[in-house]
Automatic annotation (TrEMBL):
SMART domains attached to this UniProt entry: HTH_ICLR
Signal peptide: none
Identification of the protein by name: IclR family transcriptional regulator NdgR
Record carries keyword DNA-binding: yes
Pfam families recorded: HTH_IclR, IclR_C
Domain IclR-ED, first and last residues per copy: 67-236
Keywords of the record: DNA-binding, Transcription, Transcription regulation
Domain HTH iclR-type, first and last residues per copy: 7-66
Alphabetized InterPro entries for the sequence: GAF-like_dom_sf, HTH_MetabolicPath_Reg, Tscrpt_reg_IclR_C, Tscrpt_reg_IclR_N, WH-like_DNA-bd_sf, WH_DNA-bd_sf
Amino acid sequence: MDNSSGVGVLDKAALVLSALESGPATLAGLVGATGLARPTAHRLAVALEHHRMVARDMQGRFILGPRLSELAAAAGEDRLLATAGPVLTHLRDVTGESAQLYRRQGDMRICVAAAERLSGLRDTVPVGSTLTMKAGSSAQILMAWEEPERLHRGLQGARFTATALSGVRRRGWAQSIGEREPGVASVSAPVRGPSNRVVAAVSVSGPIERLTRHPGRMHAQAVIDAAARLSEALRRAS
Protein backbone atom coordinates (compact mmCIF):
# COMPACT_ATOMS: atom_id res chain seq x y z
CA MET A 1 0.00 0.00 0.00
CA ASP A 2 1.34 3.47 -0.91
CA ASN A 3 1.53 5.65 2.19
CA SER A 4 2.72 8.68 0.24
CA SER A 5 0.59 11.82 0.57
CA GLY A 6 2.52 13.59 -2.14
CA VAL A 7 4.00 16.01 0.43
CA GLY A 8 7.43 14.57 0.94
CA VAL A 9 8.48 16.35 4.12
CA LEU A 10 5.24 15.40 5.88
CA ASP A 11 5.58 11.79 4.81
CA LYS A 12 9.10 11.71 6.23
CA ALA A 13 8.02 13.38 9.48
CA ALA A 14 5.24 10.77 9.80
CA LEU A 15 7.88 8.05 9.32
CA VAL A 16 9.88 9.49 12.23
CA LEU A 17 6.84 9.64 14.52
CA SER A 18 5.77 6.12 13.57
CA ALA A 19 9.27 4.83 14.29
CA LEU A 20 9.06 6.30 17.81
CA GLU A 21 5.70 4.65 18.48
CA SER A 22 7.47 1.50 19.66
CA GLY A 23 9.73 3.37 22.10
CA PRO A 24 12.90 5.48 22.41
CA ALA A 25 15.33 5.53 19.49
CA THR A 26 18.82 6.84 18.89
CA LEU A 27 19.54 8.69 15.67
CA ALA A 28 21.00 5.46 14.26
CA GLY A 29 17.82 3.67 15.29
CA LEU A 30 15.69 6.25 13.51
CA VAL A 31 17.78 5.90 10.37
CA GLY A 32 17.38 2.13 10.48
CA ALA A 33 13.65 2.22 11.14
CA THR A 34 12.76 4.89 8.58
CA GLY A 35 15.28 4.30 5.81
CA LEU A 36 15.94 8.06 5.76
CA ALA A 37 19.39 9.49 5.26
CA ARG A 38 21.08 10.29 8.56
CA PRO A 39 21.10 14.13 8.04
CA THR A 40 17.43 14.05 7.01
CA ALA A 41 16.38 11.96 10.00
CA HIS A 42 18.31 14.25 12.33
CA ARG A 43 16.90 17.44 10.80
CA LEU A 44 13.32 16.19 11.00
CA ALA A 45 13.67 14.86 14.56
CA VAL A 46 15.12 18.17 15.77
CA ALA A 47 12.39 20.15 13.97
CA LEU A 48 9.71 17.94 15.52
CA GLU A 49 11.39 18.43 18.90
CA HIS A 50 11.07 22.20 18.43
CA HIS A 51 7.30 21.73 18.09
CA ARG A 52 7.24 19.35 21.13
CA MET A 53 6.06 16.43 18.97
CA VAL A 54 9.37 14.74 19.73
CA ALA A 55 11.35 14.95 22.99
CA ARG A 56 14.48 13.36 24.49
CA ASP A 57 14.75 10.88 27.34
CA MET A 58 17.43 10.91 30.04
CA GLN A 59 19.84 9.08 27.69
CA GLY A 60 19.30 11.64 24.93
CA ARG A 61 17.27 9.23 22.78
CA PHE A 62 14.33 10.51 20.76
CA ILE A 63 10.85 9.80 22.15
CA LEU A 64 7.32 10.94 21.31
CA GLY A 65 6.75 14.43 22.71
CA PRO A 66 4.08 15.90 25.01
CA ARG A 67 2.37 17.87 22.24
CA LEU A 68 0.95 14.63 20.80
CA SER A 69 -0.76 13.85 24.11
CA GLU A 70 -2.16 17.38 24.25
CA LEU A 71 -3.58 17.05 20.73
CA ALA A 72 -5.05 13.64 21.56
CA ALA A 73 -6.68 15.13 24.64
CA ALA A 74 -8.11 17.98 22.59
CA ALA A 75 -9.58 15.43 20.17
CA GLY A 76 -11.67 14.13 23.07
CA GLU A 77 -12.88 17.61 23.97
CA ASP A 78 -16.15 17.36 22.05
CA ARG A 79 -17.15 14.33 24.10
CA LEU A 80 -15.96 16.07 27.26
CA LEU A 81 -17.97 19.21 26.57
CA ALA A 82 -21.05 17.26 25.51
CA THR A 83 -21.02 15.45 28.85
CA ALA A 84 -19.90 18.43 30.94
CA GLY A 85 -23.21 20.35 30.90
CA PRO A 86 -25.37 17.91 32.87
CA VAL A 87 -22.47 16.83 35.11
CA LEU A 88 -21.67 20.42 36.12
CA THR A 89 -25.36 21.22 36.60
CA HIS A 90 -25.70 18.23 38.92
CA LEU A 91 -22.53 19.26 40.79
CA ARG A 92 -23.91 22.78 41.22
CA ASP A 93 -27.23 21.44 42.50
CA VAL A 94 -25.55 19.03 44.95
CA THR A 95 -23.13 21.60 46.37
CA GLY A 96 -25.15 24.78 45.92
CA GLU A 97 -22.06 26.44 44.41
CA SER A 98 -20.92 27.45 40.92
CA ALA A 99 -19.20 24.63 39.04
CA GLN A 100 -16.54 24.91 36.31
CA LEU A 101 -14.49 22.76 33.97
CA TYR A 102 -10.95 23.91 33.12
CA ARG A 103 -8.45 22.75 30.53
CA ARG A 104 -4.81 23.75 30.31
CA GLN A 105 -3.62 25.71 27.29
CA GLY A 106 0.08 26.50 27.40
CA ASP A 107 0.84 28.48 30.55
CA MET A 108 -2.81 29.33 31.21
CA ARG A 109 -6.05 27.50 31.99
CA ILE A 110 -9.34 28.12 30.26
CA CYS A 111 -12.86 27.71 31.61
CA VAL A 112 -14.48 25.57 28.91
CA ALA A 113 -17.82 24.90 30.66
CA ALA A 114 -19.66 26.20 33.72
CA ALA A 115 -22.90 25.97 35.70
CA GLU A 116 -23.57 29.12 37.71
CA ARG A 117 -25.21 29.31 41.09
CA LEU A 118 -28.75 30.51 40.50
CA SER A 119 -28.98 33.14 43.24
CA GLY A 120 -27.08 34.87 45.99
CA LEU A 121 -23.38 35.69 46.14
CA ARG A 122 -21.51 33.69 43.52
CA ASP A 123 -18.07 33.33 42.04
CA THR A 124 -18.73 33.81 38.34
CA VAL A 125 -16.13 32.51 35.88
CA PRO A 126 -17.55 32.99 32.37
CA VAL A 127 -16.89 30.27 29.78
CA GLY A 128 -13.83 31.28 27.78
CA SER A 129 -12.14 32.99 30.73
CA THR A 130 -8.36 32.59 30.74
CA LEU A 131 -6.83 32.29 34.20
CA THR A 132 -3.35 31.82 35.58
CA MET A 133 -1.70 28.46 36.24
CA LYS A 134 0.04 29.99 39.26
CA ALA A 135 -2.92 29.99 41.67
CA GLY A 136 -6.22 28.22 42.33
CA SER A 137 -7.26 24.65 43.01
CA SER A 138 -7.83 23.75 39.35
CA ALA A 139 -4.34 25.06 38.50
CA GLN A 140 -2.99 22.73 41.19
CA ILE A 141 -4.83 19.79 39.61
CA LEU A 142 -3.66 20.59 36.07
CA MET A 143 -0.08 20.95 37.33
CA ALA A 144 0.18 18.13 39.89
CA TRP A 145 0.58 15.23 37.45
CA GLU A 146 2.77 17.06 34.91
CA GLU A 147 6.12 15.67 33.75
CA PRO A 148 8.91 16.70 36.19
CA GLU A 149 10.56 19.36 34.03
CA ARG A 150 7.27 21.13 33.24
CA LEU A 151 6.21 20.81 36.87
CA HIS A 152 9.45 22.45 38.04
CA ARG A 153 9.01 25.33 35.57
CA GLY A 154 5.36 25.78 36.52
CA LEU A 155 6.12 26.08 40.22
CA GLN A 156 8.26 29.17 39.64
CA GLY A 157 6.21 32.09 40.94
CA ALA A 158 3.27 29.86 41.90
CA ARG A 159 1.19 30.40 45.04
CA PHE A 160 1.46 26.66 45.80
CA THR A 161 4.50 24.45 46.44
CA ALA A 162 5.81 21.06 45.31
CA THR A 163 4.85 19.73 48.76
CA ALA A 164 1.29 20.95 48.29
CA LEU A 165 1.07 19.22 44.89
CA SER A 166 2.39 16.01 46.44
CA GLY A 167 -0.57 16.17 48.83
CA VAL A 168 -2.92 16.78 45.88
CA ARG A 169 -1.63 13.64 44.14
CA ARG A 170 -1.99 11.61 47.34
CA ARG A 171 -5.62 12.55 48.11
CA GLY A 172 -6.82 13.12 44.54
CA TRP A 173 -8.27 16.63 45.00
CA ALA A 174 -7.10 20.18 45.65
CA GLN A 175 -8.47 23.16 47.54
CA SER A 176 -7.76 26.86 47.45
CA ILE A 177 -8.60 29.48 50.08
CA GLY A 178 -8.16 33.00 48.70
CA GLU A 179 -5.30 31.81 46.49
CA ARG A 180 -6.55 33.11 43.13
CA GLU A 181 -8.84 35.83 44.42
CA PRO A 182 -9.29 37.20 47.97
CA GLY A 183 -12.43 35.90 49.65
CA VAL A 184 -12.95 33.03 47.19
CA ALA A 185 -12.49 29.33 47.97
CA SER A 186 -12.59 26.37 45.59
CA VAL A 187 -12.23 22.59 45.37
CA SER A 188 -11.08 20.72 42.24
CA ALA A 189 -10.49 17.15 41.05
CA PRO A 190 -8.87 15.67 37.92
CA VAL A 191 -10.63 14.42 34.80
CA ARG A 192 -8.58 11.67 33.16
CA GLY A 193 -8.51 10.58 29.53
CA PRO A 194 -8.35 6.97 28.30
CA SER A 195 -4.57 6.87 28.88
CA ASN A 196 -5.14 8.01 32.51
CA ARG A 197 -3.56 11.38 31.71
CA VAL A 198 -5.14 14.39 33.44
CA VAL A 199 -6.93 16.34 30.68
CA ALA A 200 -9.12 18.72 32.69
CA ALA A 201 -10.11 19.84 36.17
CA VAL A 202 -13.61 20.05 37.64
CA SER A 203 -14.15 22.72 40.29
CA VAL A 204 -16.70 24.28 42.58
CA SER A 205 -16.05 27.78 43.84
CA GLY A 206 -17.70 30.37 46.03
CA PRO A 207 -17.13 32.79 48.90
CA ILE A 208 -15.08 31.59 51.86
CA GLU A 209 -18.01 32.59 54.10
CA ARG A 210 -19.98 29.66 52.63
CA LEU A 211 -17.23 27.21 51.72
CA THR A 212 -15.29 27.90 54.97
CA ARG A 213 -11.50 27.65 55.25
CA HIS A 214 -11.77 23.87 54.75
CA PRO A 215 -13.79 23.64 51.52
CA GLY A 216 -12.50 20.14 50.76
CA ARG A 217 -14.29 18.76 53.81
CA MET A 218 -17.58 20.05 52.40
CA HIS A 219 -17.29 19.36 48.69
CA ALA A 220 -14.31 17.14 47.77
CA GLN A 221 -16.39 13.98 47.37
CA ALA A 222 -18.99 15.64 45.14
CA VAL A 223 -16.24 17.12 42.93
CA ILE A 224 -14.41 13.77 42.75
CA ASP A 225 -17.68 12.05 41.74
CA ALA A 226 -18.28 14.62 38.97
CA ALA A 227 -14.73 14.20 37.68
CA ALA A 228 -15.16 10.42 37.68
CA ARG A 229 -18.34 10.72 35.57
CA LEU A 230 -16.51 12.82 32.98
CA SER A 231 -13.51 10.46 32.98
CA GLU A 232 -15.84 7.53 32.37
CA ALA A 233 -17.47 9.36 29.44
CA LEU A 234 -14.04 9.87 27.86
CA ARG A 235 -13.17 6.19 28.34
CA ARG A 236 -16.43 5.14 26.67
CA ALA A 237 -15.71 7.47 23.74
CA SER A 238 -12.24 6.09 23.07
